[in-house]
Design goal:
Layout lengths: L2 H27 L1 H20 L3 H32 L5 H36 L3
Length: 129
């Protein structure tokens, strides 16, 4: 194996390590991440039980990813804004944090709507309604 290839592979492995460290930080430090995790597992379990079609699964997976991505980006924004403020109150830091939180809220509301649209009809059918 060439030295350049080894360096490339090692740097990719480091990138994955940093990404997993970021995931772990969000999971252990953000209470809303636990809510997202519970909702994700419940929706996945229900989707398995309902035997959703592939296209519905694609939408469910994208929707779950949207919410998690919003939460991760919000956490990153909060961390950077807090570090930039250096312990001082700044109105733009508050705006940044509030807008980041709003993005998560929008993603969560959209995921609820999508979940209702995709899961309720087959659930009602499965329950005999």
């Amino acid at each position: 194996m060439s030295h350049a290839l080894f360096r490339f592979l090692r740097s990719r492995a480091k990138s994955f390590q940093y990404a997993f460290e970021g995931c772990w930080f969000v999971i252990r430090s953000q209470p809303n991440a636990w809510i997202h995790a519970l909702a994700s597992f419940l929706v996945i379990g229900l989707s398995i039980w309902l035997r959703l079609e592939r296209r519905d699964w694609a939408v469910i997976v994208l929707t779950i990813a949207l919410v998690w991505t919003a939460e991760f980006l919000n956490t990153a924004l909060e961390a950077i804004a807090t570090a930039a403020a250096d312990g001082k109150q700044h109105p733009l830091v508050k705006v940044g944090k509030d807008v980041g939180a709003a993005a998560v809220l929008i993603a969560a509301f959209a995921s609820i709507a999508i979940g209702l649209l995709i899961l309720v009809p087959p659930l009602l059918e499965r329950l005999g309604f």
